[in-house]
Design goal:
- The model has no long low-confidence stretch (mean pLDDT 87).
- By secondary structure, this protein is an alpha/beta fold.
- The protein contains 10 helices and 7 strands.
Amino acid sequence: MNTPGKIAAFFDLDGTLLAPPSLEWRFIGYLIERDEIRTENMTHWVAESARTLRHGWRSAVFANKHYLAGIHESFVEEWANTTTHGSLPWFAQGIDRMRRHLECRHRVVLVTGTLAPLAHSIANHLPPSVEIHATNLEIRDGCFTGRICGKHLSFEEKMRVIGERAAEFDLDLVQSFAYGNEISDVEMLQAVGRPAAVNASWSLKREARRRGWRVYSWRDSPEEKGRRANTARALKEAR
């Protein structure tokens, strides 16, 4: 802790800082409500899943975004304008942990498999100076093609991002922190000296206990849940 500028804190998003459903599912729900995701989108998604399954389940599940094919990118901004910090179920303890790292002059990095346009659209809900790395989508003529650019940011890809940040900023990963909730975060957690499993899935919790990692449960207080419910109700009535 004597060299805070060399220390980083890496955070997953969905399930770690934000309660389910995921940011992507929230966006999909918004599109379905507006009848933007139609039968042909899902048909293309199923066909692509079948085609890529031979390359492994990760390609079929994580890399296939064909249900968004033809959706104009402007819908992301429209959706983001309907959200407020109070309407999204942030875990207050997670956001406070981010702030504490920033106060200690640690580099704070969001490393998430969610779609990059969505992650950047809610950046104003996070403390300032948080760096964002997410899964990039291919865009053509202003519309999503259903394909991702590069690889889905999970498993070893999260470790790759951490390695690149460490090399660029000469970070001390032994003194650095990471927070994740799923087994797809395990490579990110093992890349640092101070990992923590947060709201962990059964498989990650078992792995964390085997390795002696910290295990946290970040949950909202009843007051926070009530405040968010009131905010969501007011937004719904205003539409």
